[in-house]
Amino acid sequence: MPDPLSGFELFSLLSAAILHDVGMAVSKSSAERTQDIRVDHFNRSRELIIKNQEELGLSEHEARIIGEICRAHGMPNLSYLEGQVFSVHRYGEVRVPLLSACLRLADALDISSDRAPRTVANNRRMSAESRRHWDIHRCISDVQITTAPSWDIRIIAFSQKGVPEQLLYERRNTIQRELDTIYPVFRSAGVFFKKIELVLNRDWSESQQSRVKNPFLLLKPFGSRNARLFAGRDEEIQQMVERVTGRKLVVLIGESGVGKTSLVEAGVLPKLRSYRYTAVRFSFQHDPVDSLMAKLKGSSEKKRGAMPLVDVVRTYIDRRGRNTKLLLIGDHLEQMFTIHKSQRTRQKFVEQFSRVLGSPLPATFLFCIREDYLPDLFNLSLDIPALYHRDNTYRLHKLSTKSGSEVLKRASLHASVRLSANLIDKVADDLCYEGDGMIYPPYLQIVGYRLYAAFAKNHKMPSSLAVIPESVYTRLGGVETIVNRYLEGLLDQYPNDDKALIGQILSTMVTEYYTKKRVKKKDLQEALPHCHNLDRLLSSLVEHRIVRRSLGEYELIHDFLARRVIEFIEKKRFLSPPVRRAMDFIEKNHGTKGLTSDAIASAAGVTRMHLASLFKKQLGSSINRQLNQMRLAKAKTLLKSRDPLTNIVKETGFRTLSTFSRKFKQIEGISALEYRKTLIDKKAHGRK
Q: With contact defined as beta carbons under 8 Å apart, do 223 and 361 qualify?
């Protein structure tokens, strides 16, 4: 609102919301009929509040104002309040007409399925009128009030078997009449509600009624199918819509995982449909110009000769009609710098894109790019200055605590089981544990998913009234434990031998800088020749949303996982306990001369034959080879110094110099002296 409610006004409105139906209470000895009480209950509520002000802890002025708001919710209209001034000492003037209008609207819109629990469906004592109201509530899954400038109210309902749709339209019309009655009060306060809209879905069966078992998507982005679960970004959506509708180019910037794709697909695009935009997505994994042309050309045009991109865009718009507004969406612009190293590809993109951008065509480009590639974007902007112009860029930040709470509430609203209010507040606060006071969206999705999964594990058939308590969250160990255990929890589903191979597969997809990298299948086959189930394991990793496959290459589905993979490998969690104990023992004692396989197996707590079998299955190597590799890793570090080879042999645990030299060349491919010479040459070259 232009003038927000004061603290006392908010207190008065909330108090009235709690007490407005107190006049419906009646003692057993009362001779009054229930119907008579219902007709006049709003006046009774006012009288009871004023009469019992001391028990309620209210002053005389406070009780009078709250009572008047309660009374107003049942009056034919609010015209009788015009000209009346309500004020309270210390709080100043109170806008009772506006508060009364808010209460009346909220009371009219309190029609969601929350008011119709399944447990009362078989109540035979329910009157016909009550049954009618219950059926209406049962069909309505959500009520949405859009923000400025539209201020529309949408009722989301589903067609139910045995419930005439006419009942829903009658209810919509009743609420519209109520809105028309109180509209003058809202208009004087600067709020301009326009209409009540009923969105009726006829293809939704009762068993599927808008409820999902787990409303959280883990690391998968939101799309049009689950847009109703997307929340916490109202302001960002509005600002992005304003940019897209007012410019030819918009660049959405944000760190990996902050939700750029979700914002566009589940937030911005649904809003742009009312502006008659047609969205066309293209990829930077291929040549971006060719990718966009392929999406824009019709099947009959694909065999035609090469055309400039601007002509293809013009033809597409002409084919769709003169009122078409085209939004060309290119996600992951950073792939222009990671995949396309060819200057020819980049120059082609610059030329073709610039021509469309400079044309009068009603086409807008929307690019999404990771924040850590801003230096590359700046370099590209030397050819396309508009890319880096501040009016064309929008930076998406992490979620605030308030926005995080909204996400949790929206997810809970559409789930078959709800989160308790206390749990929502606690989780939202705990998610800010990294110290910047903001919430990283992937963490929120992981925590929410685990809460629902843990509850479902112990409650196979929860009722519609079930609420996930705070104790479930406590048992899971809180935010940090849930997030840190995410990857390990997924991999715990695999047998030990598969887990060890998966650890080696994932280790090829991370860099020493805790970022993900793409690997080709043939490179994986060369790195893991002992892995005979590579196709099966890769398919399983894709299915579990750990790895993404694209153009024959594989990468982690999210940068968030890169650090977890490195930690997972460093702590040897991918190995079975005996192999882990053996590797720890080798790491601590590899410098001991005469260390044997029997000693290593004894430290691992298994026989030498069994340990050798585990090493072969999980590491594709023998015990002695692992011992020698660890010794040679230390030797390579020592070769950087000018220590004699005899000293290095003693420190690494090899029996003789000849054994050391033979093993070094066997594993590294060159002799130790050649390796040292290479290091010296590189160092000398660096000095030059």
A: no
With left for phi above 0 and alpha for psi between -120 and 50, is residue 282 left, alpha or beta? beta
How many angstroms separate the CA atoms of 474 and 472, rounded?
Answer: 5
The number of beta carbons lying within 10 Å of the beta carbon of residue 17 is: 18
- Which whole-number Å values give the CA distances from 652 to 30, 185, 200, 341, 673, in the listed order? 96, 86, 75, 42, 16
Share of the chain above pLDDT 70, in %: 87
Query: What is d(CA 180, CA 185) in angstroms, rounded to the nearest whole number?
Result: 10
Q: How far apart are CA 547 and CA 410, in angstroms?
A: 28
**How is residue 225 annotated by DSSP?**
G
Query: What integer pLDDT is reported at residue 35 of this predicted model?
Result: 63
CA distance 366 to 330: 6
Cα→Cα distances 402→436, 478, 669, Å: 14, 19, 58
User: What pLDDT does 243 receive?
Assistant: 93
Chain length of the chain: 688
The model's pLDDT over 495-525, given as tens digits with 9 standing for 90+, comes to: 888 888 888 899 888 887 677 888 888 888 8
| Rg value, the chain, Cα | 33
Once rounded to an integer, what is the mean pLDDT over residues 452-460?
Answer: 84
Number of C-beta neighbours around residue 86 at 10 A: 18
